Amino acid sequence: MRTVKEIMTTDCITATQHDNIYELAVMMKNNDIGFVPIVEGRKLLGVVTDRDLVVRGYAQKHSGSTSVTEVLTTDIETIAPSTSVDEAARIMARNQIRRLPVVENGELLGVVAIGDLAIREIFADNAGEALSHISEQENQPSAVH
């Protein structure tokens, strides 16, 4: 049984709660990423996604100098490094998420992404199923108000 520790990305781009949303947007652009864990030292405080920047940041007319704490998601799903790849795929599918921070004793060790499951051809069926569930959720027509 493979664990997420074997496939997770450990050289994560991170930011702190002292950064602003413009700095995060530039960080995402420069590193071609859409997800940044926010840490204090190595302690995971939450995450900011590119969608968070748009929906809770710029679309709410926050300026670029607004603190990341205004768009920070703190209620996040995390997993332990000993979690099986199979279970990680199930968690991603169930929660319709593409990335899971890998945490031990509150400290960020890495991130496992849906692409990590597919690219490494580990449990490809589970990765495909997880992505299918996530994509179905995103493609559902939303109510027009």
UniProtKB/TrEMBL annotation:
Residues 8-64, 72-129 form the CBS domain. It comes from the Bacteria. Pfam families: CBS. Keywords: CBS domain. PROSITE patterns: CBS (PS51371). The keyword Hydrolase does not apply. Coiled coil: none annotated. This is CBS domain-containing protein. The lineage of its organism: Bacteria, Bacillati, Bacillota, Bacilli, Bacillales.
